[in-house]
Amino acid sequence: MLGAWVDGRVASSIAIDDRGLHYGDGLFETIAASGGRPRFLAAHLARLARGCAVLSIPMPDEAVLRTEVAQAAALAPHVIVKLMVTRGSALARGYAIRGGETARRIILAHAWEGGPDLLPAPARVARATQRVAHQPLLQGIKHLNRLEQVLAQTEARRRGLDEVLLCTDDDRIVGGSMTNLFLVAGNRIVTPPALSCVVTGVMRGELLRAAAGLGLAVVEREIGTGDIASAEGAWITNARVGAWPVGELAGREVAVHAWTAPLQERIRQAGREVRDA
Question: Is residue 92 part of a domain?
């Protein structure tokens, strides 16, 4: 780890009564930074603000967050910054919110080996054996309770996969344990609707913009196992991996689609643009 701060101060621990520790009562953003500049910061802060509104946590001052994230981003040529906002220390025992809590800011900085130009080998992806709960109240936000993702990533490692796809009890595939999913179906790209995603990823939005810029048709609809079986190409996305092409999908080989390189280049260029003022 390159550095860690709590409420703007260098730190290596948090208060033992923090509600984020006790209940996962908070949110986080994983922000990739290159050359000292956080990429897509405005989109990350907008999602954080939406999550704070859903959980009724006061959104920290955006200018303060920008300054603190920038401080972390400057520690190496390429950095992954994790920004967490918890409800803060509990005012009394129990789940109930008392209303006088003070939100806590936690920032961690990790070296990002290779940065955005390091393109990994095509991903090996399959459906997870576990099912994921459908929780409309929390859909799309990046809250701190990630136990389903912990179990899914444990399964992925056990099976020698890069990612596993999460499926609901009614057989809808809502994305990966750490990624959003895009499939090629004929002359279209298909992806689960934003409100069906476990997390509505910032990089998901960037791929949608990149596809629009290339004149590619994108359809947001529910995805099932039949779509996985017939897909002509696929990508998984998050802030760290960008648009990662899938080379093996549910046990069958999938060719890296011709749209991959143009989409990746569009996203790389967008990451260098100053859109965060």
Answer: yes
Predicted local confidence at residue 274, as pLDDT: 52
Q: Based on the domain organization, do 111 and 129 belong to the same domain?
A: no
Which residue range is the domain that position 131 belongs to?
123-272
Distance (Å, whole) CA 189 – CA 257: 11
Residues of the chain with confidence (pLDDT) below 70: 274-277
CA 258, CA 37: separation in Å to the nearest integer?
Answer: 30
Question: What is the pTM assigned to this prediction?
Answer: 0.94
pLDDT in the model for residue 155 = 98
277 lies in a domain?
no
- Phi, then psi, of 197 in degrees rounded to 5: -75, 145
Structurally, how many domains does the chain consist of? 2
pLDDT at 277: 41
Residues ≥6 apart with Cβ < 8 Å to 101? 19, 87, 88, 89, 90, 91
